[in-house]
Amino acid sequence: MDSTNTQAAPGDWSPTSWKSKKVLQDVAYENQEELTSVLGKLNKLPPLVSHYEIKNLRKQLAEVAENKRFLLQGGDCAELFDYCSHEPIESKLKVLLQMSLILVWGGRTSVTRIARMAGQYAKPRSKPTEIVDGKEYTAFRGDNVNGIALAERDPDPQRLLGAYFHSAATINYVRALISGGFADLHHPETWNLKEWKFAHVENPAVRAEYQTIVNRLNDSLDFMRTIGADDPSKDAIRTVDMFTSHEGLLLDYETSLTRKVDGKYYNLGTHYLWIGDRTRQLDGGHVEYFRGLENPVGVKVGPSMKPEELGPLLDILDPNCEPGKVTLITRYGHDKVSVYLPAHIAAVKATNHKVVWCCDPMHGNTESTASGVKTRRFDHIATELGRAFRIHKECQSKLGGVHFELTGDPVTETIGGSMNLQESDLGRNYQTFCDPRLNYEQSLDIAFMIAKYYEGERSPMKHL
Ligand code: PEP
Ligand code: CO
Q: Which reactions appear under catalytic activity for this entry (predicted)?
């Protein structure tokens, strides 16, 4: 493997060609020498993922783009170094696996799982600084830049090495769990579907509906066991793929983990990267860096995306029109999705690009309570998602995936869901330092909703 970062790949691209462009959300380090030394060290460290895995993900996303698979992407808004510990990793993996099982069953389709994990540390901010007790501090930019504590707000290059090693430890444990049987469909303490009593679900009608889905799902699993389809030697049933992803925000860090393999450039720090809604300018540094990568890439698409920008953006990121190379992760808000999505679908249809359409119903639905707590309403999340499914169908397009901020832990950050969390409950276990997430039950609520949607699609009469 050639790990130099200087050879040009497509046309005039190189892993550092972004440096000639305007880079938004950049971090100003005081000690440039220390930064250079850290980046040199990162450039020597071994990759965290292999290009074989990235090629496998590319293949799977091509199938999503061709409507043969569904994509589930989820995890924390801001991953913290502290989450690199066995319980948070296990609970996040568990909720993603359980959601995907419900989606596989409900959609009768294979599901590709991408965790926002093992590197989701850097955060874009609307303001670079904040005032606390009359004093100005650098805003918290994520654990790979600075600390949440006011005394640790100066950007520290050593945190980039911390990001690498925490990502490595996280991904190592994810791999160990998956290859050790954590994903086995019948593993009692991980799936445990038979024990579910839905005690958290307040409404008896919803509880009965969910219980029916779980009973039927368990029936299917029993049937598979009866016919031997769950034979442990059959890897497709015992094990699953779990890919990692993060926002590719800190271009110095991303460049230092970019490697040339078989004449192509891969970011081997993660399987999948996306460009945030604030950094996707056609002539900006982020789009420039992303256009040279072999990894599949995502772009967040919000209300400020002009339909006429989509074609040129896709021409840059996907010059060979390869299905699934680009995922458009739409995030408008429940009250805006109907205004913007149809024109965005039409703009992409007018090109030769086959994208994955993915709905992020989180980032357009953030609000603050009267007392200033950042939250989201489950109903708004569900509404944006439901509308996205419907609009794609009406436009003869297909929603290929979903993107959530979630955790496997019992946090109280999002209002609503089947447990009917109230605004007054938010203080009970509000943990996030960035955006509010779905908790374990709310995440499964969403998976059941999608399963129900697919059921209705298969037998529309039932839902009339
Ligand atoms: C995020 O995904 O955490 C985020 C900041 O999203 P967006 O770029 O869509 O605002
Ligand atoms: Co977020």
A: D-erythrose 4-phosphate + phosphoenolpyruvate + H2O = 7-phospho-2-dehydro-3-deoxy-D-arabino-heptonate + phosphate
